[in-house]
Amino acid sequence: MNNNCYLKYAGMFGLPLAMLTLGISTATAQTQGKFDRKLLLEQQIELPSNSVHAKTIKVTIPAGFKTPDHTHDGPGPRYVVKGKLKVIEGDKTGVYSAGDVFWESGDVMSVENVGKGTAELIIFELAQPKQPEKK
Q1: Which strands sit side by side in the sheet containing 76-82, from one edge to the other?
Q2: 12-20: long-range contacts, CB 8 A cutoff, minimum separation 24
Q3: Where are the extended beta strands (E) located within the chain?
Q4: What are phi and psi of 26, to 5 degrees?
Q5: Which positions make up the signal peptide (predicted)?
Q6: What is the pLDDT of residues 7-55, one digit of tens each?
């Protein structure tokens, strides 16, 4: 992946993810005059092309709910907003709580809410562009 492509996507996801993580808005940051930046996750990836279909998805998972095995359209960082989740992806298992960020590869996986209340997860997905349907 060339540097211009990396910078394009780092800028697209870095600042919004940092601001989401810190729980601040642009207006709040400007008013207070101080901005703190903390790296939560870094992942080297190779994109299939210079064009990527990027999605941000908010998922709410009820207490005790477990998804069936599934995949997503693409890999990307996942941010736990609240709750506690057990994620099984391939042969790896991780437990993540509010404020944690993890990388999902796009392999077959399941997610279980192992906390006491509702969990919320933000999925940042980097997928191949949608191909136009053939008629």
Answers
A1: 53-61, 119-127, 76-82, 101-104
A2: 12/54, 13/54, 13/77, 13/124, 17/77, 17/79, 17/101, 17/124, 20/79, 20/122
A3: 53-61, 76-82, 84-89, 92-97, 101-104, 109-113, 119-127
A4: -60, -45
A5: 1-29
A6: 444 444 554 554 454 555 555 555 667 888 888 889 888 877 788 889 9
With beta carbons less than 8 A apart as the criterion, state whether 114 and 95 touch.
yes
Q: What is the architecture, at CATH level 2, of domain 3-127?
A: Sandwich (2.60)
Q: Encoding tokens for residue 74?
A: 């693409």
Going from N- to C-terminal start, the domains of the chain cover: 3-127
Cβ contacts of residue 30 below 8 Å, gap of 6+? none
pLDDT at 4 over 50: no
pLDDT per position as a tens digit, 51-102: 888 999 999 999 999 999 999 988 999 999 999 999 999 999 999 999 999 9
Residues 55 and 70: beta-carbon distance below 8 Å: no
> Residue holding tokens 């997905």?
125
**What is the structure's pLDDT at 29?**
52
Both structure tokens of 10: 């780092």
CB–CB of 104/121 below 8 Å?
no
